[in-house]
Amino acid sequence: MPRQLLLLLLGLSLSTYATEQEEQYEEVLNPSLHQQQNAKQAKEPTASQTGNPAAEIIDGDTGLPDPLDSIETVVAGAAETSEIAPEIAADSEAEAAWGALSLLNTELSPNSTATLDWYSGHLPGGFELATPVVVVHGKEPGPRVCLTAAIHGDEVNGVEIARRVVQNLKAEDLKGTIISIPVVNIDGLWRKDRYMSDRRDLNRAFPGDANGSTASRVAHSLFTSIIRHCDSVIDLHSGSMFRENISQLRADLTLPAVAELASHFGAIPVLQSIAPPGSLRGAATAAGIPTVVMEVGGPFTVDVSLVETGVKALRSYLSAIDMLPRSFFWSSPQPVFYASEWLRSRQGGILINKVTLGQRVNQGQLLGEISNPITDEVEMLYSPFDAVVLGRAQDQFVSAGYAVFNLGERRSIEDLEQQGEIIKQQVVEKNAEHMGLSKDNAKHSETNISSPAEQPAPPASSEEPPAESSATTLGEQTTPKPLPQGNEHE
């Protein structure tokens, strides 16, 4: 009899243990149901209240092992979700802040590409001709980079560079926005003419005037409608008057923002150059938008090899500022900085080049010959110092004083910055002398010119840039001191 009672008690204990385990699982999996059961049990009398001895034995110490601790469920990825939730929220806020781009009366949503119409309003008789503006508005936030080409109608290398840069570029792969105006002077491009229809140079009319000349009105429209929406500008040009240039940048390295911009184009030559008055480069930089000029090849024709170098340099820049995911290989990833000097002919005649673009030349090396077709005299042109041929006039008839070779001497960026400041001071003093100002006023003007982002853009001018004072006459055997100028004709 006692043995049977012991077996009965053991069976009841095991049943109770199983019930407790089941309740623990229910508590974990369905807490609300467990709470309801607890509330229901709270209303029922306990075993001591009912006086049931069996219940007291079951609830008492039976000598059996304690039940296992309650099992906590773990949801896969819960910890990771809690950690990355703030990042997701931040990305969502960034996308919301990125939002649509408003340009030329059009709203572009992120991750979109469109060709917009810009009306410069310069055609006579009420005619309107839309200039295409290609916009790639990236999926993710980033800078707004503006490409301009064919400000001069005879410069077509830049048109092809701008086309290739945005060709097959997907907005979903882009951080930021690219705004490309491949043909600014569309009227000049059709006429194969460098200038506007009023015979003025558009790149001497910025920032323009809504009530000014034809060129000034076009400049004002471009500047206010598009340029002011950009964070940086790359203005694409080619040589003028049958001159040609190796692919190169022209930048005022005395300005930190411009120097930083110019350092991201790979191993492309960078020339220290103060922006000519009225140029897009000068006006945009004065408005706080860092701008450089890229010179590629010569007028009227497309030099495919130089175009490819220009495209690679531009894409390298976009990658360097994290707008594009991929990088581009250069044998030397850093740019090469030059002080440059245009050398001029002493007499007129037929020019025959003896060197090529990009060629390294030594002091005294023959650069070319100019043969006078009337007197049959021949002028031998020699390099006055060790240099690289950055630009040259094409074989043609040249007049006396014609800028024939642009020779570059490699310098450190610190040297160029220092020389740039000296040239600015010389320009200010010369202007002050012409205007009858004192040296104190000249110093004040020099402070202004050193910080163009804080000053209004220089006034427009219809004239060509003055010849560089540092240029020497070819044929002289003395070694000049090249100054960092070289915008013939930007």
UniProtKB/TrEMBL annotation:
Residues 34-52 have a biased composition (Polar residues). Pfam families: AstE_AspA_cat (PF24827). Residues 1-18 form the signal peptide. SUPFAM superfamilies: Zn-dependent exopeptidases (SSF53187). Keywords: Hydrolase, Metal-binding, Signal, Zinc. Residues 34-69, 438-490 are annotated as: Disordered. Its cofactor is Zn(2+). Residues 450-471 have a biased composition (Low complexity). The keyword Transmembrane does not apply. InterPro entries: AstE_AspA_cat, N-alpha-Ac-DABA_deacetylase. Residues 141-320 form the Succinylglutamate desuccinylase/Aspartoacylase catalytic domain. This is Succinylglutamate desuccinylase/Aspartoacylase catalytic domain-containing protein.
